[in-house]
Amino acid sequence: MDSWAVGIPAVIGATFASYRLRAGRSSPWNAKGVLALAGFFVLESLRAGVDVARRAITLNIAPQIIEYESCLENETALTLFCGTVSLLPGTLTTEMRNRTLMIHTLDSRQPVREELRKLEHHIDAIFGPQRQGTD
After folding, report:
1. pLDDT recorded at residue 67
2. What angle do CA 107, 126, 52 make, to 5 degrees?
3. Is residue 37 part of a domain?
Protein backbone atom coordinates (compact mmCIF):
# COMPACT_ATOMS: atom_id res chain seq x y z
CA MET A 1 0.00 0.00 0.00
CA ASP A 2 2.88 2.39 0.69
CA SER A 3 4.00 2.21 -2.95
CA TRP A 4 0.58 3.42 -4.13
CA ALA A 5 1.30 6.84 -2.65
CA VAL A 6 4.21 7.13 -5.06
CA GLY A 7 3.18 4.88 -7.94
CA ILE A 8 -0.30 6.14 -8.75
CA PRO A 9 0.60 9.85 -8.75
CA ALA A 10 3.78 9.08 -10.72
CA VAL A 11 1.91 7.25 -13.49
CA ILE A 12 -0.82 9.89 -13.65
CA GLY A 13 1.70 12.73 -13.58
CA ALA A 14 3.95 11.19 -16.23
CA THR A 15 1.02 10.47 -18.50
CA PHE A 16 -0.39 13.96 -18.03
CA ALA A 17 3.02 15.54 -18.72
CA SER A 18 3.52 13.40 -21.81
CA TYR A 19 0.08 14.34 -23.08
CA ARG A 20 0.59 18.07 -22.41
CA LEU A 21 4.04 18.16 -24.01
CA ARG A 22 2.84 16.70 -27.29
CA ALA A 23 2.18 19.47 -29.77
CA GLY A 24 -1.02 19.50 -31.79
CA ARG A 25 -3.14 17.40 -29.47
CA SER A 26 -6.62 18.84 -29.25
CA SER A 27 -8.78 16.03 -27.89
CA PRO A 28 -8.98 15.90 -24.07
CA TRP A 29 -8.98 12.77 -21.97
CA ASN A 30 -12.30 11.18 -21.20
CA ALA A 31 -12.93 11.81 -17.48
CA LYS A 32 -15.20 8.76 -17.14
CA GLY A 33 -12.44 6.65 -18.65
CA VAL A 34 -9.92 7.99 -16.12
CA LEU A 35 -12.25 7.18 -13.21
CA ALA A 36 -12.98 3.71 -14.59
CA LEU A 37 -9.25 3.01 -14.98
CA ALA A 38 -8.57 4.24 -11.44
CA GLY A 39 -11.25 1.93 -10.03
CA PHE A 40 -10.02 -1.00 -12.11
CA PHE A 41 -6.43 -0.34 -11.03
CA VAL A 42 -7.26 -0.19 -7.32
CA LEU A 43 -9.37 -3.37 -7.38
CA GLU A 44 -6.83 -5.29 -9.47
CA SER A 45 -3.96 -4.11 -7.26
CA LEU A 46 -5.75 -5.35 -4.15
CA ARG A 47 -6.68 -8.67 -5.73
CA ALA A 48 -3.24 -9.23 -7.22
CA GLY A 49 -1.43 -8.06 -4.07
CA VAL A 50 -3.18 -10.72 -2.00
CA ASP A 51 -2.40 -13.29 -4.70
CA VAL A 52 1.30 -12.36 -4.83
CA ALA A 53 1.56 -12.49 -1.02
CA ARG A 54 -0.06 -15.95 -1.01
CA ARG A 55 2.34 -17.14 -3.72
CA ALA A 56 5.36 -15.77 -1.84
CA ILE A 57 4.38 -17.82 1.20
CA THR A 58 3.49 -21.03 -0.65
CA LEU A 59 6.02 -20.67 -3.50
CA ASN A 60 3.23 -21.61 -5.90
CA ILE A 61 4.66 -19.81 -8.92
CA ALA A 62 5.21 -20.58 -12.58
CA PRO A 63 7.15 -17.55 -13.81
CA GLN A 64 7.36 -16.86 -17.51
CA ILE A 65 8.06 -14.03 -19.91
CA ILE A 66 5.31 -13.67 -22.48
CA GLU A 67 5.29 -11.67 -25.68
CA TYR A 68 2.24 -9.44 -25.97
CA GLU A 69 1.29 -7.27 -28.92
CA SER A 70 -0.75 -4.30 -27.81
CA CYS A 71 -3.59 -2.99 -29.94
CA LEU A 72 -2.97 0.56 -28.70
CA GLU A 73 -1.60 2.88 -31.38
CA ASN A 74 -1.48 6.13 -29.42
CA GLU A 75 2.01 6.52 -27.90
CA THR A 76 0.72 8.13 -24.72
CA ALA A 77 -1.85 5.37 -24.25
CA LEU A 78 0.84 2.75 -24.81
CA THR A 79 3.13 4.44 -22.27
CA LEU A 80 0.32 4.46 -19.70
CA PHE A 81 -0.38 0.81 -20.47
CA CYS A 82 3.28 -0.21 -19.93
CA GLY A 83 3.52 1.74 -16.70
CA THR A 84 0.28 0.36 -15.34
CA VAL A 85 1.24 -3.24 -16.19
CA SER A 86 4.46 -2.79 -14.23
CA LEU A 87 2.64 -1.33 -11.21
CA LEU A 88 0.21 -4.23 -10.92
CA PRO A 89 1.58 -7.00 -8.67
CA GLY A 90 2.69 -10.12 -10.48
CA THR A 91 3.50 -8.50 -13.82
CA LEU A 92 6.37 -6.42 -15.12
CA THR A 93 7.02 -4.97 -18.57
CA THR A 94 10.64 -5.91 -19.28
CA GLU A 95 10.97 -4.68 -22.86
CA MET A 96 8.98 -2.85 -25.51
CA ARG A 97 9.59 -2.78 -29.25
CA ASN A 98 7.01 -0.73 -31.12
CA ARG A 99 3.77 -2.21 -29.78
CA THR A 100 5.21 -5.59 -28.78
CA LEU A 101 5.88 -5.96 -25.07
CA MET A 102 7.80 -8.58 -23.18
CA ILE A 103 5.99 -9.09 -19.88
CA HIS A 104 7.23 -11.11 -16.92
CA THR A 105 4.47 -12.83 -15.01
CA LEU A 106 4.66 -14.78 -11.76
CA ASP A 107 2.14 -17.40 -12.86
CA SER A 108 1.82 -18.37 -16.50
CA ARG A 109 -1.21 -20.50 -15.59
CA GLN A 110 -3.28 -17.36 -14.99
CA PRO A 111 -5.23 -15.62 -17.81
CA VAL A 112 -2.59 -12.88 -18.19
CA ARG A 113 -3.48 -11.98 -21.80
CA GLU A 114 -7.14 -11.56 -20.94
CA GLU A 115 -6.24 -9.26 -18.04
CA LEU A 116 -4.00 -7.21 -20.33
CA ARG A 117 -6.85 -6.85 -22.85
CA LYS A 118 -9.11 -5.57 -20.04
CA LEU A 119 -6.48 -3.00 -19.11
CA GLU A 120 -6.20 -1.92 -22.77
CA HIS A 121 -9.97 -1.50 -22.89
CA HIS A 122 -9.84 0.86 -19.90
CA ILE A 123 -7.05 2.87 -21.50
CA ASP A 124 -9.03 3.06 -24.74
CA ALA A 125 -11.84 4.63 -22.75
CA ILE A 126 -9.50 7.44 -21.69
CA PHE A 127 -7.98 8.28 -25.06
CA GLY A 128 -10.82 7.27 -27.35
CA PRO A 129 -10.72 4.39 -29.82
CA GLN A 130 -7.03 3.67 -30.44
CA ARG A 131 -7.20 0.04 -31.45
CA GLN A 132 -5.65 -1.22 -34.65
CA GLY A 133 -7.80 -4.30 -34.95
CA THR A 134 -10.18 -6.46 -33.01
CA ASP A 135 -9.51 -8.54 -29.91
Report:
1. 94
2. 20
3. yes
In this structure, is residue 45 part of a structural domain? yes
Q: What is the pLDDT of residue 104?
A: 92
DSSP single-letter state for residue 89: T
Q: Are 44 and 88 in contact (CB under 8 A)?
A: yes
What's the structural domain count of the chain?
A: 1
Tell me if 80 is assigned to some domain: yes
What band does 134 get if pLDDT is binned at 50, 70 and 90?
Answer: very low
- 131 burial (CB, 10 Å; 0-12 / 13-18 / 19+) is middle
Q: How far apart are CA 62 and CA 65, in angstroms?
A: 10
CA angle 110, 38, 19 (to 5 degrees): 110
The 10s digit of each residue's pLDDT in 76-104 is 888 888 888 877 778 888 888 888 999 99
SS3 42: helix
Q: How many Cα atoms occupy the beta-carbon half-sphere of 40 within 13 Å?
A: 20
Query: What's this model's pTM, rounded to 2 decimal places?
Result: 0.64
Range of the domain at 86: 4-127
